[in-house]
Amino acid sequence: MPLIYFNCPEKTFTEKAKNTMAMELTELAHRIEGIPHTEEAKNKCWIYFNEFPKTNVFRGGKIINENILSLEVNAFKGGLDEEQKLEFIQKFTERIRFYATNVNDDEVPVYIIFRDVDFCNWGVSGKTITMDDVKNESGS
What we know:
It is built from four helices and eight strands; from the N terminus they run E-H-H-E-E-E-E-H-E-E-E-H. By secondary structure, it is of the alpha/beta class. It has a single domain, classed as 2-Layer Sandwich (Macrophage Migration Inhibitory Factor). A hairpin with a 2-residue loop joins strand 7 (123-124) and strand 8. 22% of the residues are buried.
């Protein structure tokens, strides 16, 4: 049940590529997390594409004017172990690079940062939720 903020320069992905990639990334995230493969479960994975002008990325205080992609992945603390995170990073990077336009696969940095969120800090519809809630509700 990750909540993912995907930051990328404008026109890195076509609209069709974003739609297809969002579905693939959702399915990958659920497979890696061990969430049941149901429509209800898919609806619990959120991906926000934040596109910005290339001139809004700076390194060393200077505009770099190149495609640098970053994902901020918010997931339940303890929901993913180190091995799962590594698989997540590898598979997500592979799929993202497949769909990116105007970039050289070997040179495009894809930064993926995990934020492990305590259950008491994850609110949904006015209450907290746990991984067990997600797994049990999604499997029914």
